[in-house]
Amino acid sequence: MKTNINFIKLRFPAFIFSLTVILLGFWFILGPKNLNLGPLTPKGFNLGIDFQGGVVHQVTVYYDINQNDIRKLTEQAGLGNEVQQIIVPEEKRIGKAVSYLIKATITEKEQKEIKEKDITAAKFLEAKIQNLYSLIKTQVGNEYVLQAEELKKANSLYPTEFINGEIVDKKTDTQRVLNSVVKDSESVISPVYSAGLRLQAIFLVIFVLTVMLVYITIRFKIQFAIGAILALIHDTSIMLGFIAFFRLELDMYTIAAVLTIIGYSINDTIVVYDRIRENFGIMKDFTSKQIFNTSLNQTLNRTIVTSFSTQLAVIALLIWGGPKIFSFAFTLTVGILFGTYSSIFIAGPVVDIWENLFSKKEKAKILKEKKREEIEQKEEDAKDENEEQTTASNETITLSKSKLKKLTGKKK
Amino acid sequence: MKKRTRLLIFLFFLAFGLYFLIPTIRWYYFYSDIDKFEASVAGDKLKLEVEKKVNAAMEKLKKEEKLDKELNSIREEFKKEVKKINRANPEDKISISDKITFTEMEKILLEKRKQKYVDSFFRITLENFYSKNYESKRKVKESIIKLGLDLQGGAYAVVTVNFNHPNMKKKYPKGITKEDREAMIDSAVLKIENRINKYGISETSIQKLRDQEKIVINLPGVKEVTELRQIIETVGVLEFKLVSKDGSDMLAKLKREYESQSKSIFDAKGILLAEVQAKLPPDTEVLPISNKDKWGKESDKKEFLVVEKESLLGDNMQILSATVSVGDLGQHVVNFELGDEDAKKWAKVTGDNVGKQIAIILDNVILQYPVVRDKITGGRSQITLGDSPLEELRTLALILKSGSMSAPLEISEENTVGASLGQDTIRMGLFACLIGSFFVLGFMIIWYSLGGVFADIAVMLNVLLLLAGMALFKGTLTLPGLAGIVLTIGMAVDANVIIYERIKEEFRAGKTFKTAVHLGFDKAFWTILDANLTTFAAGIGLSLFGTGPIKGFAVTLCLGIVSTLFTGLFMSRLMFDYLIANTDFKTLRVLNLLRGK
Question: What distance, in Å, lies between the first and last C-alpha atoms of chain B?
């Protein structure tokens, strides 16, 4: 498969497209929060508790209690209103168990309260959660008794080990007793610590970019490094925009996904750069535009195949990986798409622009090329007139033909 | 290099990978829950478990029931014992058969040794046999790829010392120096270790991040975070108590009596039997003496002392300084200085009890019990401890200095995951992983035909090496780590893609297939190396500075890159060299399944 797409010609539409996506992303991240524009309303990041401090708590209630009731109770207990039901598959369900994920961040007002009372954030939150438990218990009762059918199912699922929240002393042949509310998992992060994590995340991203800048400058040239870093910043900004738009939770896992994409995208970019460097050696008389186009076309197959195969793996994660991995996989999907795009349309063209602006040799080459083109054009015109051809041959085709001749000639 | 040498290198790496993966495979696929439990018990719990087994085995053996393995190990020991006896009485040699029974052995031994010795001989042999069993299981456990908290369930906490606590300001009106801070963190680690060891969880890890003044605690398997909170927030208490000599003698006597009837003075829960307590002097309690093995873990075999219940200086005394120095006779001694109030009390206490022992107790464990030589006035005391190693003295000084500080600890991050939740996550993650790899491998075959098969073999070896690397570096598999593996599979084929596309290009440019393959590999080499090294550099940085999920992810990433380079550049080339050794292909059919040309 040989392609001959003029990528460099497409750079300005690509720049405009990228800029639009990035600016839209920034709008969703930083725009004024009090506007009401339907789906376009900026909402900012949905910060996970890693970065804001607070608690994520998964609780199982062995009674049929619906999400709205739980939400009312969490609000009453001062734990906000972010409640999400977790589907328990029917074959694993014990009693009338329902699971909820409750996320509560610590507001600034609460931070002051914690300071005044001189307690730890963990204790502060624990009190609220205990409060929530007792609220739920007043609504549904303290215990849930498994009998008959439910007991049979429970015994087949947990023949010897205990069910989460089981009151062991009350276990008999005809019944098993559970606490009506049980904690499945919990993670608490204090606001002070999360501020540190926030800094760490920013530091890590900047650190990685710097390492790459230095490495590429050593292995290639400074303009290549700048092109690569711009492409990476482009990918990161777009991913953050998507995260904000879809209200995906921004936590350490998401940062891991962003860093993965940085690694992936630089991989793509380097492969293209490597070909460009090689071609600069072979195609000495050609302008950088031509070299870039040739290189991008030569590596296009590889870029697409790799991107496709990686995407296959990530999409499997997206579909079958379960809820905990979903936002991670989603960020990766978007990232791979734009990472591939940026290594073609951003990283290469940026270096080309640099060459055109700063390299004297390059300017001379372009002048020479222009002159040659003019001569060829004239010859072409003369030919056309002579032979009275109705269809004028395309300039680029002639160009590439003549170039090919030169190339093969040189090799021999 | 010759093909055969390279094949050998490849086989070496394959064997290497399998070797490090075997414990992991055994653990997750062949170990029963009982085996897993036995591998994880430690400390007091282990002692109880072994004791239970020994008792059961002894009973069975006495009834001559079948217990081949146990009996064999006893026979071995018995033979050694008989040799000793024979050496002592060369005239009257005992000969034994290979199938000697337990009763026969007992009879022979009883003729030559005391009853008590014979009993303990069998018990010790059995104890060794069982502990070895536990030990070998624990060794397997230590060399497996561990699952992170998010996949396994358990508790995790990051603990910091609250230096801004009002109590701190009271104690250090002039501000806290850097050394004080460090000492406080060290003491906090000590205290937490002391407390956690009591729970008998063997995989606990307590990690000190000195620069960040943080302590990271991992407690896999602990379900309730309240347990962890208790451990952390109940700060260790340092006390001085008077040793009751009569009581201790009495206890030793009782212990001997009980043990000769193979009973313990403690009940199954480790609480002193009431009948024993009743025979001791009033207002006393029995405390264990710290007996750490060379790895710093509390050993199972403990001695006990009886001390008076009342603490000499209360549980909130003020120790101004504690240092290790060289004493008059050239031996190392621990010096410590008490605050004014306590110094006065100390003078009275030491004056009244010259010649008696005073126990230094941390969290109800006796660390040392020096003898009072003189009345100590002015608060400056010196403890001389025979020939204790210097390290032990330093620890004592540290505990003395910091034990009274009661640095307020604070949990800044805390995470508990229920075990069943972790199981669901890992089940789904593994499933997605398998499907994803299936997709990628299938796609490669469709796209590259035989080349795709080669790439797939390389990718599978890649995953094997990656997992082996994780086992070797004692890595932990977390959820992002799992995703990292999937991603590695996706990206690992990249090396092959670059090479194949290059080969096709060269072939189309008019080269023969053989030359095209050589050129393809040579030219792709630097591209692949450059592309991967950039990511590798970043990965190393991440694993140095990142914590938690980022770190696990970075380690997986780096190992993945190394194995990708190996499999992509080395393995695939080897396979191609074998392919083109005898035939030179005329078309690109081996690389194109759909488009033969």
Answer: 32
